Amino acid sequence: MNNQPLLEAVNLSKRYEDGALAVNNVSFFVKPGEIFAMLGGNGAGKTTTINIFLNFIEPTSGEARINGISSHVEPLKAKQHVAFVSENVMLYTNFTAIQNLDYFVRLGGKTQYTKDDYRKVLLRVGLQEEAHNKKLKGFSKGMRQKCGIAVAILKDAPAILLDEPTSGLDPKSGFEFIQLLDSLRNEGKAILMSTHDIFRAKEIADTIGIMRQGNLVMQKSREELSGENLEQLYMNFMAGVYE
Amino acid sequence: MLSTIITHELKNIFFSPKFSVTFIVVSLLLILSVIVGIDQYQKAIRQYETTTQLVQQEMREARGWMSLNNKILRKPDPMQIFVAGVNNDVGRISGISSFFAVKLSHSTFSDDPIYAVFRFVDFAFIVTVVFSLLAILFTYDAINGEAEKGTLQLTFANAVPRAQYIVGKFVGSWLGLIIPLAVPMLISLLLLLLWNVPLQSEEWLKIVSLFAAALLYVTFFISLGIFLSTMTKRSSVSFLFSLVTWVCMVFIIPRAGATVAGHIITVPTVAEIEAQREAFSKDRWTEYEGTMQEKWKARNAPTQTMTKQEREAFRDSKMWEWMEEDDRDRKQVQVDIDEQAKKLNEDLRNRKAEQEYLAFVLSRFSPASAFQLAAMNLAGTDIALKSRYEDALNEYRPVFNTYKDKKQKETGNSGGFRIEVNSDTGVKIDAGREKGVLDISEMPQFTHPKHTFSDAMASAVIDFGLLGFFSLTTFAGAFVRFLRYDVR
Amino acid sequence: MTKLIIEKELRDIIGSTKFAVTFSICSVLILLSFYIGAQNYRVAQAQYEASKSANVRQYEGLTDWMRVHSFKIFLPPQPIATLVSGVSNDIGRTIEVRGRGELRSQDSRYGDDPIFAMFRFLDLDFIFSIVLSLFAILFGYDAINGEKERGTLRLTFSNAVPRAEYITGKFVGSFLALTIPLLIPILIGTLFLPLFGISLSANEWSALALIVAAGLISIGVYLSLSLFVSAKTERSSTSFLLLLSIWILTVMIIPRLSVVGADLFVKVPNMDEINSQKSRFMSQIWNEDRTKLNGFTTTNKNDVQALMNEFNKYMQNLADEREKKYNEFAMRLNEDRYNRQMEQQQLALFFSGISPSALFSLASSEVAGTSLKLEQEYLAQSKEYQKEYAKFMKEKTGMNMGGFAMVFRKITDDNAEKPTTININEIPQFTFKPIEASGGIGPYAGYAGVLAAFNLLFFAGAFAAFKKYDVR
């Protein structure tokens, strides 16, 4: 397997028009088969970082690369290599789960799938069969989240961006989700995930970064963290103890 | 409790950013329409006066009493500033003469069809279309919008009686919309004073009633919006339904009503009726000529044996009597023709009245039609405008003709020209008077049909009633629905 | 990719409540308008025939062509005019032809039956310019910001989707979704037309096709405008309020105010005044001629027939001269008014060109033959007819009627010969040649061109706005 980083932030900065510095000179990378978890409070710059990867906003300086392609120079090319699951997956409410899957997967450039493939993936992410042909209108947040992950899986991109994917999920769904991430990692995906959930992060991530006020204040691998109390570390960073 | 809800609702409307923008636009439109209306009215008055003077001048210069014809113009009514109604579709002018039936011709729209292409914008139009839409825009999410925002749940976590809440909602929205809409109306009253539009107390009453009808109409749409917002869970759905209901009520039902009525009851055209009248008149005149021929044969019979002198003496002695007799017969023919015309006209009118009645019944399912009808009735620019004028003209015509005949007899000058061909005396042509003007100062004046406030109200009262009924039922509907509304 | 977006857009809209509602309203309205249009046409046709035959009947039994003082002609109804009525209900349908003098149309449908003037008709023009333009807004107001509110825009653009393709797909998809509820009932309606007893000529079919085409372009304008506004605003409720205001202004207010505005710049002399001046002038010159009558002398003291001919010839000469004088006088007034009226019309039409719905109405009335030209065309054709009529009457009576000719009725003692009745059917028939669709194609193309330009402009605006749109 090629061991070049699939997701790479290089001196990434973003200053909004109102002057707020959302991301300040952040650098990290995620290699295939790795999960990078970004921790941080609200407004720490996690979502902004992901938005830059998706070219939803342009970086003020530095760049975000997907598979070595700068996301704001060649956004369409870059986005071919990435799948995305947002904090609150929103799909077309008057389409069924399958119809939504079909549309978004095709948008992602994958046209070869059959209904059966959709069904299998939906089952894999834990959506009951009877829900497959129901309209999204009555879906709970967890069910929608599962659909979103199914879209990401089917897109079969080497890199996956997850923006607080487990927030609002019940414990069982959260657990299943972590297992799913694990299996995706084993398939060789590079996964960047932002999250509030310290325990889940510790459980699954290969590398953990902590963001505060736009800065990546800590970045440690699983090995480096072993034996440390991540919760205490996080609280200290949030309180600015190390500054 | 109630006042808390009401003031909250008022604040909600007044402080929403869309309110100030829409309110200013709507007010400007209304004021603009009134200014345009005043301008058009004053222009119409000037034209009315100039033309009336021209008509008078022409009459004074007429060849003689016999050929004196009058022309009557419909007098512009200041109420048309607010409600143009059918004013521009109905003819403005009618000739008054012995031979021709009255007929209003020359409508503004047929003279200047460009106006007909897009029609006019007036107070009634703006209220019907714009005000109603505005009312719906601010009420369609009155209940389900609060449910979506989650504030309804919070509200009813307190000990708030539902009845009070819905009443408060209604009163609050009503005050919040009616007060701003009343402002441009009051400004338009000021404009009337400023431009010196001549208004009698009757007209002020009409205007005030018109405004009342407008507010009642807006009230209906307020309660309709609230009602529809209690019917559905989602405000987007209630909005769709409000908009569709609005389109149906404002545009589709009125048109469909009239069109269907026109389809069920067909009315012959004026041209057809006129042709029938002409046919009768031609027959009658031919018959008259036949009897004349017979009469003259009989009159000439005794002269066969006379000498030329005797013949002339006999004729001279009898001539006056004969002429009077002929004149009587001629007048009788005209009377017959007029009678027949009246009958034909009445038939046509009855049939039309049937059609109009049906159209009104069908279109009154829409409050927009009820308001328009009320407005037109109040302004006197209703469908009956035409027949009111025709009646007045028909009343005036014999008065005018009698005056003309009397004058002609007094002066002894027919004014027509007489050509006598007589085998004895040859050709004699009398072309009537040559110079001077007629003194028409004593001529009976046409009195324009009165449309008093009580007349107007008598026909508008049903529409007021309907508007009230519509408002009440929709509000009752909203009330009942809300008592069982799922506030979660 | 575009195809996929179009497909999704179509499916999204067709599955929605608003589609169900608009589709049913459109279908009912369009079918109703076709049915009612056909019925209206039949009623109008029957009325036209009735007026014509009643008009002929009044001359039956006459024994002398001299007694035919005038003959009325009527504007026949046109089937397309019931679908796009234009000004056809506002202009006079009847013209009295006297052989000479000015012609004037009177008895407009709306003047005769003000009930229809008050409510107007439910025709295709109304459906397109008012109802469908509103539906176009309803379909497009949340095209962009609605997707953002729903949260689907983020997911969409996490894929390699070019924005140009996305917005094109949106436009094409919603346009197609809007045209389906339109074209299906229109097709059914046109198929039913023969069943309703209306047969259209090839010319009328092409007019109908052109009208529908113009309707589609004007709907496109409202749709691209909606796309533009929805790409310019954050919230769909804001874009809807804005679009609804634009709709009210362009559909209801601007066209109406355009005439008032034109009125401010160009003053058209009042018709009543002009008519009074004309009629006064007429009676003046007639009075002058009356004095001349006294100067009539004859050499034929005994032959009444010869005398009558001589007198009528004398009268005719006077009448000819009078007509010449009158025409000169009237022409000046008419021309002045006509020129100003044209100027005012041009200006009003120019102002109303801001409104897509007005542009559609104007374009469709041009090919339907119910534009402002209709009255001029009717008058022009009836002028031609008047010449024919005058020629015919001259053959029959030996003189040009319509002056103040005298008919002498000899009262004779012998009633030996019964006079024969005239055959009124010999009179030339007036057949109105309706304005062909091809005749209005020039202005139609102009109006449709402006509509197309609006489409391009708003779509370009939507495109530019969406390029910079924050899809987060």
Detailed description of the structure:
The complex is a heterotrimer of chains A (243), B (488) and C (472). Chain A is an alpha/beta fold and 243 residues long. Chain A has helices spanning 46-53, 75-79, 97-107, 115-124, 141-155, 171-186, 198-204, 222-225, 230-239, and strands spanning 7-15, 21-30, 34-40, 61-66, 69-70, 82-85, 159-163, 190-195, 207-212, 215-221. In chain A, β1 (7-15) and β2 form a beta hairpin. In chain A, α3 packs parallel to α5 and α4 (115-124) crosses α5 (141-155). With 488 residues, chain B is mainly alpha-helical. Chain B has one domain (1-268, 366-488). In chain B, a hairpin with a 3-residue loop joins β3 and β4 (426-430). In chain B, α13 runs antiparallel to α15 (453-483). Chain B starts with a helix and ends in a 5-residue tail after the last helix. By secondary structure, chain C is mainly alpha-helical. Chain C has one domain. In chain C, 68% of the residues lie in helices and 3% in strands. The longest helix of chain C is centred in the last third of the chain and has 49 residues, at 304-352. At the B-C interface, α2, α3, α4, α5 and α10 of B face α2, β2, β3, α3 and α4 of C.
Indicate the topology.
The complex is a heterotrimer of chains A (243), B (488) and C (472).
Chain A: E1 7-15, E2 21-30, E3 34-40, H1 46-53, E4 61-66, E5 69-70, H2 75-79, E6 82-85, H3 97-107, H4 115-124, H5 141-155, E7 159-163, H6 171-186, E8 190-195, H7 198-204, E9 207-212, E10 215-221, H8 222-225, H9 230-239
Parallel strand pairs in A: 3-8, 3-9, 6-7, 7-8
Antiparallel strand pairs in A: 1-2, 1-4, 4-5, 9-10
Helix pairs in contact in A: 3-5, 4-5
Chain B: H1 2-14, H2 17-60, E1 70-73, E2 93-96, H3 108-111, H4 113-118, H5 123-137, H6 144-149, H7 151-155, H8 162-194, H9 201-231, H10 235-264, H11 270-300, H12 308-363, H13 367-379, H14 384-411, E3 418-422, E4 426-430, H15 453-483
Antiparallel strand pairs in B: 1-2, 3-4
Chain C: H1 2-14, H2 17-57, E1 71-74, E2 92-97, E3 105-108, H3 109-112, H4 114-119, H5 124-140, H6 145-150, H7 152-157, H8 163-192, H9 202-232, H10 236-265, H11 271-293, H12 304-352, H13 356-368, H14 373-397, H15 441-467
Antiparallel strand pairs in C: 1-2, 2-3
